[in-house]
Each structure stands twice: as structure tokens, then as C-alpha cells.
Amino acid sequence: MITDVKTQIMSANEGIITDEMRTVAEAEGVSPEFVRDGVKEGSIVILKNNQRKDSTPVGVGAGLSVKINANIGTSNEKSGLENELKKVKVIEETGADVLMDLSTGKGIDEVRKQIIASTKLPIGTVPMYQAGKEALDEYKNIAKLSKEKLFSDIEKQCKDGVDFITVHCGVTKFVIDQLEKQKRVTGIVSRGGAMLACWIKATGKENPLYEYYDELLEIAKKYDVVLSLGDGLRPGCGADAGDRAQVAETIVLGELVKRAKAKGVQAMVEGPGHVPLNLIPSMIQTIKQLTDNAPLYVLGPLVTDIAPGYDHITSAIGGTLAALNGADFLCYVTPAEHLGLPDVEEVREGIMASKIAAHAADVARGNKKAIERDRKMSIARKDLDWKLQKELSLDPSKFDNMNFEEEKPCTMCGDYCSMKIFREYF
User: Fold this and answer.
1) What are phi and psi of 228, to 5 degrees?
2) Which of 231, 254, 255 is nearest to 243 (CA)?
3) Nearest to 221 by CA among 268, 263, 284, 183
């Protein structure tokens, strides 16, 4: 049993700079005091379960670089543990900041433990996936899922070392009522949100994650796990973006963010999936305002619905604009989105698209490290310094197996002129 726990927020409230705050500050190129103050205000969270001793703390939030997450997970239909562990290696090699284990296949507990043991990256889960799947396996009826089973799985996953958990606390009876009154093109596309909505309709009871939110906070506090308040009513198509149900849930999440901070628990908010490009700025700014400037974690947003096979691109377009307007954390989307589970190469492609989006937003947001990296790349190109270009590239592997011929000085200026045609002419 963990006793006398002091979470990151509790330490920040006492003016203490923790080791995790110092690590984040060094990685971001900001002062430890800046990180501490952000944690105190709730505009920054640090992903670091106090049970994981060898993991790397990662900061998410205002004034920090935009982070990206990559999802993996087993399923009964396609992928097992061995393949998912390969994806973990690709995620590390390609440079994602965080990963989530969304496993729904066999042996979920063992899969999670092995994934946690295989990496130092922060790890997130959606406990409702395990609780709901196992209830369906046993009873063939989601309504048979008990509050005790759900909360037991939450604590088990936190105890195992998960750094953040997605919990769809905002899918309440009132919010579902709003959804049913207005109708939608695509209904509920969140798996966890759909499970809870079905549970609420079948039992007539309130969402236990909302009704017993204080108990959830006690679990999160014990392990200093960040609550990622899930957007169970996120729009699943552009036509549903910004509707009554989405806004109603966001208002609830704003209330829950404040309650978490008051209890010394870190919280971030999850944001929309499909949003037309013109609506992204106002939507992101509204969500940030309604949720007390908590770090915002977005899926995409995907800016069009008609690009299956290319949704890593539609996501990168939306992610850049969302981050420019205040989103802090991008969940990658792979080319397999809307088609099936991604293979290893599709995981790589999804990460690279998100990395480009995050870096572009960092440059536009005035992040000094991002701007300097671009400047150094420009100089390396001018100097035809291929080695340095490879080091600075988001994907250095693109430089492998390429033959770069030694360049001759320009006969006109005596320097390495970038105007190749001009140089060859003379």
C-alpha cells in the first residue's frame, strides 16, 4: 500500500520542484520554475506513474513542445503480443513521445505488463476496454459490467505502472439525452463512450466514472496517474463537429478538471476527431476555455471524411492547425484508420505524419528549439552538409543508402552555390 503520496500538483502547490519537473524542463529548454507553475495551474501535466522507476517523464501542456502519441494493442482478429512489441520498437525508433496500449485480445494483463517492461516511454490505457470486453466475454451483456469490476481494473492498471488513463467520465445520462434529442450522422464512434452509453441505457443508472468520480480521483492520486478525460461523444464525421452532445460533454469535463486539481490529481482533456478545417480554431479555443486551459489531447482532427488510406495526411493537416490554436498533444492516425488495424510500417507512417504536424506547429508557436532546428537545417543545406542534414531530419532513415557525390565549388562565386543549373552552365 502506498502511503503519504505527494503528487506533482501537491508538490507544485507547496513550491517544490520535483525531479520530474527538472527532467521535463531540461528536455524542453525552459526553467524548472516554469514547469512547476504550469503544473500548479493545471496547464501542464507530467506523465510519470510513481510505480515506474525507470521511465522517462514527459510534460504535456502550455509552453511546451507539442507531443505525439502512438496507439498499439492486440486484438482477437489480427494482432498478438509479438507483433505489438515490434511496434513498440518502431515507436521508439521513429520518435513518438508516448504510446497507448489499447489491447482487447487474449491475456490483456500480461500484454500490458510486457509492453510496460519493454519501454521507458510513458504509457496510457483505456481501462474500460478491458472491463467491457471481459464483461461481454463472460455475460454477453455490457449491462452486467459492475462498478466494482471497472474500478478494480482501473486500480490494477495504475498499480502496474500505467502513466495515464483515458476515462470517459463525461458520458453522463444528461449528455446521452442531448445526443438522442438532436440525432447524429455517425452516432458515437468512441469505443469506450459507446460501451458506457449502452450501459447507461440498459441499466438506467448514471455513469459510474462520473457518479463515483471522487473514488476515481483517490486511485489516480495514489499512483500520481494523469486522468485523460475522454471525449466519448467526439464527432465521428465533419457533419457532427461542434454539436450539442459534444459541447455538453465538454462542459462536464471542465467541471471534472477543476475537481481533479482540487484533489491534487493531474488531468488533461481529450478533443475532437473529425472537424472541418474552418471550424478547428474556434473549436480548440472553446474547449480550452471550457476546461480551464487543461492540456488538450486531440485525435487528428481529421479535416475530411473521404480519404481512407490517407487519413494520416488528413490528420496531420488538422493536427497542425489544432496545435497552432492551443492543442498540446496529438494522437497519431495511420493510413489504416477506417480500414483496419495498422501494421508496423503503417505505424511508422502515422508517427512521421504526426511528427511533421507537431514540429510545424511548434515553429509557428515560436518554440525556440524548433525554430533553431529549422535554421540549422537551412545552413546544412546551403553547405551541402549531408551528415548534419541527416541528424536534423525528422526521419534520418531517408538518408540511408543514398549516394551523395562530392560537390565542386561554383566557378562564379567560389562557394557551394545552391543554384545547380547555374553552376553546371558555367
Assistant:
1) -100, 100
2) 231
3) 263
Distance CA 187, CA 89 (A): 35
Query: What cell was used for 70?
Result: 502512438
Query: Distance of CA 206 to CAs 158, 198, 211, Å?
Result: 24, 11, 6
Alpha carbon distance 17, 175 (integer Å): 39
Rg for the chain, CA atoms, rounded:
23
Residue type at position 226: V
> What are the C-alpha distances in Å from 188 to residues 194, 198, 346, 357?
6, 10, 25, 27
CA torsion, ordered 151, 49, 301, 371, to nearest 10 deg = 170
Give the cell for residue 168.
470517459
In one letter, which amino acid is 115?
A: I
Measured between alpha carbons, how far apart are the two ends of the chain, in Å? 78
User: Which amino acid is it at 339?
Assistant: L
Q: pLDDT tens across 189-208, in order?
A: 999 999 999 999 999 999 99
Angstrom distance (rounded) from CA 277 to CA 316: 11
The answer to whether the beta carbons of residues 221 and 260 sit under 8 Å apart is no
Contact 40, 32 (CB under 8 A): no
- Rounded Cα gap, residues 230 and 194, in angstroms: 12
Q: Report CA 178 to chain centroid distance, whole Å.
A: 27
Q: Are 386 and 404 in contact (CB under 8 A)?
A: yes
Q: Is the peptide bond before 32 cis (omega within 30 degrees of 0)?
A: no
Q: Which amino acid is at 189?
A: V
Rounded Cα distance between 363 and 216, Å, is: 38
- For residue 390, what is its C-alpha cell? 541527416
Residue carrying C-alpha cell 496507439: 71
237-271 tens-digit pLDDT: 999 999 999 999 999 999 999 999 999 999 999 99
DSSP strands (E only) in 318-423? 329-331
- The alpha carbon torsion through 127, 132, 137, 139 (nearest 10 deg) reads 140
Number of Cβ atoms within 10 Å of the Cβ of 17: 16
Q: What is the pLDDT of residues 116-138, one digit of tens each?
A: 999 999 999 999 999 999 999 99
- 423: amino acid identity, one letter: R
- For residue 423, give every residue at least 6 positions away whose Cβ sits within 8 Å of its Cβ, in sequence order, or none: 408, 410, 411, 412, 417
Residue in 44, 47, 48 with CA at minimum distance from that of residue 65: 44
40 vs 18: CA distance, rounded Å: 12
